[in-house]
Amino acid sequence: MSSNSSSSWDTDVLEGQLFKKLTKYSLYLQKLSTASQVKKLSQIIERDHEEQLRSLDQFIQESQTKHNRAVRSLELQRTDLTTTLSKYHTSLTAISNSNVTATAIHDDIVTVEREDLLIKKTFQFVQSVSILKNNISVIHSALEARDHQLAAKSIHEIRSLPKEIVGSEFAKKVVPTSDIPEEPAVLIEKWCSDLTDIFKADFLEAAKAQDIPQLTLIFKMFPLIGQNSLGLDLYSKYVCGIIAEESRKIMTMEAKKRGVFAQALLHLFKIVSTIINDHSKVISACYGDNFMIHVMEKVQKEADLQAGLILDTFNETRKVDRITRAISSLNLSHQEFVNEYGLEPDTVRARTHKMNDQVSERDGGLSDISDITDVLSEFSQMLQNWSMYSRFFSVRWYEFLNVTNLEMVTPPPPIADSQYFSKLQKDAFYANFEILVTHCLEKSFKQSLSLEELPSINDLVIFKRVEHTDIFSYPVSSILDDLSLLIRKNLILTLNTGQTQIFSRFLDQIAKFYQNEYLVRYMQTELKNLQSRLNSSLVLKKYVPKAGPDGSLSSRAASPSAMETYATNKLSQFGFNFRGAAANALTNFQSNLQAVVSDEDAVLSLHHYLIYVNTLYMNPKIAHRLFITEILEENPRLLHDNFPFGTDADILAKKVASCEALLAKQTNKLQKWSIKFLFENVLANKIRTILSNILINSNDNHYISGADDYDDLSTVHEFISKWNTHMVPYENILTKDAFLELLSLIVNCIIEKLEQRIWALQVNELGATKLDRELSLLIATVCQQNYALREKFAKLTQLVLILGFDDDDFDVDGGDLKEEISNDINWVISPQERVKARSLKIDRRH
């Protein structure tokens, strides 16, 4: 411990003792009462004084000792510091001398490096001049020996030298010889010009002779003599000549052969793609990747020209313009007839068919829809070939530009500004394609209407519930299968084109077609025709066809085997398995009924009506599979692969989903309308009839039950029996969604009827319990496991629940349930209704 810290510690101790003694003296003074005590206190003070003096002397002596020790220590440290300072000054002198030496060394090194650099430059210059002189000698000898390749390589080596070497004064004096007196720069320029003419002539000769090895060898020579552009131009012309020649060969093929133009266009694009892939290796090695862009531009112009010729020939040979103009004219005339006569009476249809035949004759006999379909398929394949080529060209273009990690691919200028692409748009090829697609879709659909077949549902008109194996075991019209195949076929045609405009407009067109042609002109018309034959007295039963004069059954009861095979084959193509009771009982029915309707005819009309309802409810499922499942879910890369540019794929994906949603929305309105008619005009009276005895215990609406009739549930069992008789066949026939919609309307009717009866009852305690049992059985029968429908009965069940509470559960003053009881239940009836419901009970105590 240092002297300062020691002194501080001793001072603190002394001050602490002084404070204690003063405190002690103060206490003694307060207690003084006699002279002896004063004398004693004086003695104590004197003794303490002496002790303090001794302690102080000792403290001073120790402090002086410590101070002297500290002084000696400082003297020693000062001596050490003086020695250190002496050494430090010696070191500074040495360092100063070293800096002078280092500066001198650095200056020497810089001088040496500068001299070394000058020597190297001089050496390189002399060496380059030597290379120049040697190569000039080699070139001179090679040209005399007509070894043009060696001359070109030597020129390339000279061109690789720094430019200032060839034109330097030293080279002008050293390089020329008596045999070669010209200056180097003049010689090189003259030789390059001579070799350019030689190589150009050799290239053209090799191209004419189709000597590919010689052609490739000469092509590699042009960059060596500085003629990159000339070499690429000659090569581009050669390649374009190949493309033109191959295109001419293609066009000599039999034009009437199916799909020949699509094959021709595909072959043309294959040639161009092969050229870009194979020759790019030579060009990249000898010229550089960036020169491939120049070649691709030249090649694309020739490909544009030849593809345009193929497209024009296709248009003329297949009479596309004439056919589309005729179709447009036919549609316009047809629309005028429709506006004049309304919904296409027979006279309008006959006249339309006559016009169609006349149009076909003018167009060279192309009347069969299969012929137009062939043209459309070939057209689609041509557009698909262009789309694939555009994607390939774009990818390679950006590869040669060394552009990577593109967030989205955009068509490069040769594709975006392509004459072929412009021709497709400006010359109405897109519009013609859309007209053909729409025409084939509508005409094929009308043909399918004439071949419509409806299955027999007799096997489903039974009182035992039928378990359907899958959704396609329900009976539907064959039109649904035909329509599904038609939409799927045309979706494939338009999607495969890879043309955003065509596919987008087709989605718009399919929505209009679906709404106008299918839902309104067909489904709604058929349903309305059948509705005129349906009434409340009609009962769903098996259809027994009338026997003809010879005792045979009418055509409506024909063998189901033909229809079954027809539907199974179509749906297997579509990707579905059509099986089940309905599929096994398919029958060739005629859907057009006679004007005079017999009882059996009315039954058949009801059968057909239910089949059409099923068809309506199956439509959204088919549409979901076609648009969402197959396009977006099962093939998530389908749109991106066919529409790779920009955000086209994402935009079209949203439009596909919107189209599917629109079809579902359009169908939903007709679904609800058809079910509502079925309920109101066929089933409503029957439901009210079988409800006539429910919740009625006597003629005066007194629901008073005793021990003798408490277990008598005959009225409910009678209802259950009648319910199963009427409703189980509907449940067997209708799809789950259709039957649920129908059941929802029936439940609303039942609830309305039963609520009126409950409010009119007078109930005792046993009657309330019996009422609850009967209502539970009724709900279980009607709703089965459908809890959403059971929720609709909540008000009725709560009204009956009120009747089952004891009198002690109610508040005497308000008449409502006590709060601690009512809070445990989620009520749908109001407190006023609870009070009113309690008043129905006649045996309450208060």
UniProtKB/TrEMBL annotation:
It comes from the Eukaryota. One of its GO terms (biological process) is protein transport. Pfam families: COG4_C (PF20662), COG4_m (PF08318), COG4_N (PF20663). Keywords: Golgi apparatus, Membrane, Protein transport, Transport. The lineage of its organism: Eukaryota, Fungi, Dikarya, Ascomycota, Saccharomycotina. This is Conserved oligomeric Golgi complex subunit 4. One of its GO terms (cellular component) is Golgi membrane. It is found in: Golgi apparatus membrane. Residues 188-528 form the COG4 transport protein middle alpha-helical bundle domain. It is a peripheral membrane protein.
